[in-house]
Specification:
- The chain is mainly α.
- 49% of the residues lie in helices and 4% in strands.
- The chain has 17 helices and five strands.
- It has helices at residues 19-29, 31-41, 44-67, 74-87, 95-111, 127-138, 140-144, 217-225, 242-249, 254-259, 271-284, 290-305, 341-357, 362-369, 380-400, 405-408, 410-427; strands spanning 146-148, 155-157, 160-163, 176-177, 211-214.
- The strands form two sheets. A three-stranded mixed beta sheet has the order 3-5-4.
- The longest helix has 24 residues, at 44-67.
- It is globular.
- The two termini are 44 Å apart.
Length: 435
């Protein structure tokens, strides 16, 4: 009597990749971001990151034991989630207070963001984003760096800490100096003096200070979008547009925002480190390049097109980076691309858009938060729609959003798009033949 051959159900091809291995690779892709954050923000960065990671791991182990779950990928997922929560926190002089904030965010991310839905793979919103949202609601002043004006009691922008170039890794964050920013309408060359901030690599705070107090670039962009900076009348040869004022007389050099020597969260500032980790994930095939590219492309287009009240009389202007530019010979402090007025206007607009892309956690969101397998659409077309929506919403939140959307920016946009992921999956589903 012949025995029946066992029937093996599909899929019949195995890639050799497990969820556990994929998540540990995501953790490894963040190692350079952690190193850079330690260099620019001192040892408070690894201390806070260790606290958030250990908290997520402890909650995960406790809940796994409580519900009887034995998912081997849950532990690396907890480590990755703890890293993401910690990397969005800003450096503070009081490390113990920041550590407490990070632990609260990690607990909320694990319990509310992950386990209340049944554990890994069952949640609707990215758990790290849930923890970040909770932190911004529970501790708006420390993490949003918003102070109350002593005279009027209204919110005002506060400054972020960044170690100077001669105190990397070992600087004392409590010894800080606020640099003299450039005055609107004056060139940088006329303000060169000791202790003036001429960019991170060319400036050293006066002793015994070891740290700079800097605005995040996105804070200046938000002030520009709220009409806080106006175009000057071009009746004289010294007229500046509002965008020129923000870019060249208030913001740091663009290279600082790319390298990471700017104000922001531990893991938000270094575009180079984030992109290297993200490109490695794309190389390994864990992330489809279309998702981060569509995210960044939508953000760039929205930043270049959407109007702002930057006119000399407060009128709203479309394409704010390309209008109100003075004659090329009038402002020798601006970068020149040939002698054409059009090329110079394009240079200003490109720099404006680049600052939007390189600040406010947009890169971290595009490469490490948007590609979560449980909260993004499954099909490629759906991921492109997801990325386009998240990128456009990020800029809309920055330019027009009130609290808490403006400070959350890309994180809030991703939470919104996570909500619509099931709908996007339904709209982009594969239809069987004959249907």
């Amino acid at each position: 009597m012949r025995t029946k051959e066992p029937v093996i159900t599909g899929p019949h091809l195995c890639s050799g990749e497990s969820g556990r291995r994929i998540l540990w690779t995501h953790v490894g892709a963040l190692w350079l971001v952690v190193v850079v954050s330690t260099a620019f923000f001192g040892w408070s960065a690894p201390v806070v990151l260790a606290g958030t990671v250990l908290t997520c791991v402890a909650v995960d182990l406790a809940m796994s034991r409580l519900v009887g779950s034995r998912n081997p990928a849950s532990l690396p997922h907890a480590v990755f989630m703890g890293l993401l929560v910690g990397l969005t926190l800003p450096a503070m002089a009081d490390t113990s207070w920041l550590l407490q904030i990070g632990v609260v965010g990690a607990v909320v991310a694990s319990l509310v963001g992950k386990w209340i839905f049944g554990g890994m793979g069952h949640y609707v919103w990215h758990p790290a984003l849930v923890g970040i949202l909770a932190i911004h609601f529970l501790y708006p002043a420390p993490v949003g760096m918003v102070e109350q004006d002593e005279q009027f009691g209204t919110p005002r922008r506060a400054k972020y800490l960044l170690l100077s170039n001669n105190h990397l890794f070992v600087g004392d964050l409590s010894k800080s100096q606020s640099p003299g920013f450039y005055q609107f309408g004056k060139s940088r060359s006329g303000l060169l003096r000791p202790n003036s901030y001429q960019g991170w690599s060319h400036s050293v705070p006066s002793p015994p200070n070891q740290t700079w107090q800097l605005y995040r670039p996105v804070q200046t962009l938000q002030a520009l979008a709220k009409g806080g900076i106006k175009n000057e009348e071009h009746t004289s040869q010294q007229g500046f547009s509002a965008v020129e004022k923000a870019l060249y007389l208030s913001l740091p050099p663009l290279a600082d925002a790319v390298v990471g020597s700017a104000g922001g969260g531990f893991g938000e500032t270094s575009v180079v480190a984030i992109m290297l980790g993200g490109l490695y994930l794309i190389y390994r095939g864990y992330v489809r390049w279309q998702l981060p590219v569509s995210f960044l492309a939508a953000a760039a287009v929205a930043a270049a097109v959407l109007p702002m009240p930057v006119g000399s009389g407060g009128e709203w202007v479309w394409f704010p980076g390309f209008v109100g530019i003075g004659q090329p010979s009038e402002l020798g402090v601006l970068p020149m691309i040939g002698s054409s007025h059009w090329f110079r206007a394009a240079a200003v607009g490109l720099t404006y858009v680049s600052f939007h892309l390189c600040s406010g956690g947009l890169m971290l969101a595009a490469f490490f938060l948007a590609n979560d397998m449980a909260t993004r659409p499954t099909r490629l077309s759906g991921q492109i729609i997801f990325g386009l929506g998240a990128g456009a919403l990020t800029i809309v939140a920055r330019l027009y959003g009130g609290w808490p959307m403006a400070p959350l920016g890309a994180y809030g946009a991703l939470l919104v798009m996570n909500t619509f992921s099931p709908l996007i999956d339904w709209l982009t589903r594969t239809k069987p033949p004959g249907k």
